[in-house]
Write a structure and sequence with these properties.
The chain is an alpha+beta fold and about 325 residues long. It has helices at about 100-105, 110-120, 170-180, 215-230, 235-250; strands at about 1-10, 10-20, 25-30, 50-55, 65-70, 75-80, 135-140, 145-150, 155-160, 165, 195, 195-200, 265-275, 280-285, 290-295, 305-310. The longest helix has 13 residues, at about 215-230. The protein is globular and about 70 Å long.
Length: about 325
């Protein structure tokens, strides 16, 4: 269960929640330009664009959950059960776990990424016996547009996302159509009449009566879309980043709200916010007391080894410090 949201103020920001009942050893990982990316059925990329995001690195290959590259192209993977249909594993195919580094390594914009994906089959290839293939779809964003890339029985669907939000199954087309049920929502006070009868408004926020409040993918999509649509904040880095985390918090999972069949609790393992204009990646974990930040440092981009930063569960800012321009 995950949610991704885009937000534009003076800069463009994209943030996501990763909602799971367990944790891998998630780290913030910077893959510099000269770190060799070895793909299963594609040629190794010895030089490529630098990228930064959250990944699990079981061996020498970063399994990115979300990342941004040095040109401001962002990509996140989200669970897509019952709908994800992958191609046959041909010679030019890529595995689902390779999609984010493969695209960010060579594309500058969403349009370039879509063209790349149109000509690259995504095949059902396991990482290993312990990490089987996962049903995924992907959210792509740059400073101009957002697109959902969804492998389905009808092929790879590349759907423009004017709402700037993505959750899990069903496909984006369903979520967009479902918004028709919520067109009467408003942040303004309603008119205070029931037909011809005047009624007293006993509470603020009554224009949001009927807003989806559950934790299903459809409810979270509606709630995130409403919050984004009516979001207001000043354009400073500090206010923009904090606003993004407030939006993500509105669809986050507190422990106990969703229980799995095996008795484990789904929580928001981490939330992140990436500034697509500066390449700064902010994050917090479920147990953290504040934000941490990592940046795509220019001096490190030409290196040949991964830079790995274990996620902090206490507030310990990294360079640059969050909101250093505030």
């Amino acid at each position: 269960m995950c949610t991704v949201i885009s937000l534009t103020t003076a800069h463009t920001y994209v943030g996501r929640n990763l909602d799971l009942e367990y944790r891998y050893r998630e780290e913030v990982v910077h893959t510099p330009r000269r770190f060799p990316l070895s793909f299963r059925r594609q040629a190794m990329q010895c030089t490529h664009y630098a990228m930064l995001g959250t990944a699990y690195v079981p061996e020498a290959f970063p399994l990115y959950y979300d990342a941004v590259n040095e040109h401001g192209l962002y990509m996140a993977g989200l669970n897509f059960p019952q709908y994800a249909q992958y191609a046959l594993a041909g010679d030019s195919a890529i595995a689902p776990f390779e999609v984010i580094p493969f695209v960010l390594a060579q594309c500058r914009t969403v349009r370039q990424a879509c063209e790349c994906l149109r000509h690259t089959p995504i095949a059902r290839i396991d990482y290993n016996d312990r990490l089987p293939c996962t049903p995924l779809h992907w959210f792509l964003a740059d400073r101009e547009e957002c697109v959902a890339a969804e492998p389905t029985a009808d092929g790879l669907l590349l759907t423009p996302d004017p709402i700037g939000v993505l959750t899990n199954s069903p496909p984006l087309s369903f979520h967009l159509a479902n918004l028709a049920r919520y067109t009467s929502l408003t942040p303004q006070p309603p008119r205070g009449r029931f037909g011809n009868t005047a009624v007293s408004l006993y509470s603020r926020g009554m224009g949001t009566e009927g807003l989806a409040g559950g934790y299903s993918s459809t409810a979270r999509f509606v709630r995130a879309a409403y919050g984004r649509e009516h979001s207001r904040c000043d354009a400073s880095e500090a206010q923009s980043v904090m606003q993004m985390f407030h939006l993500l918090d509105s669809v986050a999972h507190p422990r106990g709200s969703v229980v799995m069949s095996d008795g484990r609790y789904e929580i928001t393992v981490y939330s992140s916010c990436c500034d697509l204009c500066t390449g700064t990646y902010y994050y917090k974990t479920y147990d953290s007391s504040g934000l941490c930040a990592v940046a795509l440092e220019a001096d490190d981009r030409n290196a040949s080894c991964l830079f790995r930063y274990p996620m902090e569960d206490v507030f310990r800012p990294r360079s640059p410090s969050p909101f250093s321009d505030a």
